[in-house]
């Protein structure tokens, strides 16, 4: 079934893409995947095609990202995603028991949805809340220190249409509403973020610091956080103050500088101010040294030049080099080898080192072996030696 996304989704997609530079629009892919999931409840093939269309990518590139992250669901998901941590810490504290109880109570397994489409159950490897274990989340909002009975109570309330309050965080919302927030848009529900707060284990470090008088040197907790406009204004004022504090350039005087006895000081004498250098012909006040832009070379060529920096480029008027765009090593005289020398040297090396055959090791000469066998069989060598000596002579040869 082909899904036609609403005009609101398309408008939001354009807004997401506009957050990034024109040549970096591909960075908008992650929030766009959350956006299509907000409309369909999962990332469907139509959602993948939509993201590819608006970003100018192919569907394989989008699908590779959508299948990598577990927050993107590839099949229809319930209104509430219930995740139970079954990793080491939570498991020791009873996380597996919580998951098993919920699976039996709901009649579903991992990544499966109840028949009414309300709840999708999954076991999570880690929910990053070991100090609150065992924990479970509903649409990524935490329920801390749960056991089997409290977990069953939460899912029953959800199936009855209620919205139980998480231990920490804002009020619960559906998975689609959560996907809108993950796409970068505010939760428009009345009082959506009015509740919740940090848990006591999270504040334990702060409590100990206050108890023992530990603080960062020079830290003032009452320091206000400036807005961006205030920060930009302060930066501009600091820059103007730094420019005003710079010493004025010393201008060259047309009159000769006289020494202590009234005589004119010789040119270049110590203590005489040099004429001011001409100002750089630009409107920039930056003192940063100009950096040469990198030349247009492939990474492979730059790597080869880094490994052999003393290599020189062959004559461009000669025949084509062995590897176009690469540097040919120079000999000790500094003269670059002629094009094709590398191939000739390689061919000579191959001819001098014949590859090993199936019946003998590499480097053995078949002619010498045949001669030795012939001499041993004849019972004499070329000098008429005895058979015993023949074997020895053949071995020496």
In short:
The chain is built from 14 helices and five strands.
Poorly predicted residue ranges: 268-272, 278-284, 313-326, 357-364, 385-395
Helix and strand sequence:
HHHHEHHEEEEHHHHHHHH
Strand pairing plus helix content: what structural class? Answer: mainly alpha
User: How many angstroms does the end-to-end distance come to?
Assistant: 83 Å
Count every beta strand, where a strand is a DSSP E run of 2 or more residues.
5
In DSSP terms, counting alpha (H) and pi (I) runs of 4 or more, how many helices? 14
Mean pLDDT: 76
Q: Which strands sit side by side, in order, in the main sheet?
A: 2-3-1-4-5
Radius of gyration: 40 Å
Q: How is the biggest beta sheet arranged? A: 5 strands, mixed
Q: Globular, elongated, flat, extended or rod-shaped: what is the shape?
A: extended
Strand % is: 5-15%
In helices, the fraction of residues equals 25-40%
Explained architecture:
- The chain has helices at 7-17, 29-40, 45-55, 59-66, 88-92, 95-106, 148-159, 175-182, 200-212, 228-244, 299-307, 341-352, 366-378, 387-396; strands spanning 80-85, 112-113, 119-124, 136-138, 141-143.
- The chain is mostly helical.
- Strands 2-3-1-4-5 form a five-stranded mixed sheet.
- Helix 1 packs antiparallel against helix 2 (29-40).
- It is extended and about 105 Å long.
- The model is unreliable at 268-272, 278-284, 313-326, 357-364 and 385-395 (pLDDT under 50).
């Amino acid at each position: 079934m082909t899904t036609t996304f609403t005009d609101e989704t398309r408008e939001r997609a354009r807004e997401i893409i506009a957050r990034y530079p024109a040549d970096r629009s591909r960075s908008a892919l992650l929030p766009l995947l959350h956006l299509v999931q907000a409309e369909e409840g999962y990332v469907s093939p139509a959602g993948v095609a939509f993201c590819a269309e608006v970003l100018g990518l192919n569907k394989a590139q989008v699908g590779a990202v959508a299948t990598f992250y577990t927050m993107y669901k590839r099949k229809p998901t319930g209104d509430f995603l219930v995740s139970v941590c079954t990793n080491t810490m939570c498991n020791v504290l009873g996380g597996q028991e919580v998951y098993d109880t919920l699976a039996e109570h709901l009649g579903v397994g991992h990544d499966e949805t109840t028949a009414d489409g309300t709840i999708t159950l999954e076991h999570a490897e880690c929910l990053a809340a070991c100090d609150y274990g065992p924990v479970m989340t509903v649409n990524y909002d935490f329920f801390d220190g749960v056991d089997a009975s409290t977990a069953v109570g939460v899912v029953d309330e959800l199936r009855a249409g209620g919205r139980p309050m998480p231990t920490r965080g804002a009020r619960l919302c559906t998975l689609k509403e959560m996907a809108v927030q993950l796409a970068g848009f505010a939760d428009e529900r009345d009082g959506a973020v009015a509740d919740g707060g940090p848990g006591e284990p999270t504040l334990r470090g702060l409590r100990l610091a206050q108890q023992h008088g530990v603080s960062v040197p020079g830290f003032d907790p009452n320091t206000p956080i400036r807005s961006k406009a205030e920060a930009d204004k302060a930066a501009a004022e600091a820059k103007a103050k730094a420019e005003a504090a710079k010493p004025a350039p010393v201008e060259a005087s047309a009159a000769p500088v006289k020494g202590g006895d009234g005589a004119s000081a010789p040119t270049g004498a110590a203590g005489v101010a040099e004429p001011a250098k001409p100002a750089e012909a630009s409107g920039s006040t930056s003192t940063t040294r100009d950096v040469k832009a990198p030349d247009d070379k492939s990474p492979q060529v730059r790597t080869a030049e880094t490994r052999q920096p003393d290599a020189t480029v062959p004559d461009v008027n000669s025949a084509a080099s062995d590897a176009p765009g690469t540097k040919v090593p120079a000999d000790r005289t500094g003269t670059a080898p002629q094009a094709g020398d590398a191939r000739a040297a390689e061919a000579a090396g191959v001819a001098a080192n014949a590859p090993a055959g199936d019946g003998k090791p590499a480097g053995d000469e078949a002619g010498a072996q045949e001669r030795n066998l012939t001499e041993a069989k004849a019972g004499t060598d070329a000098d008429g030696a005895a058979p015993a000596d023949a074997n020895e002579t053949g071995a020496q040869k």
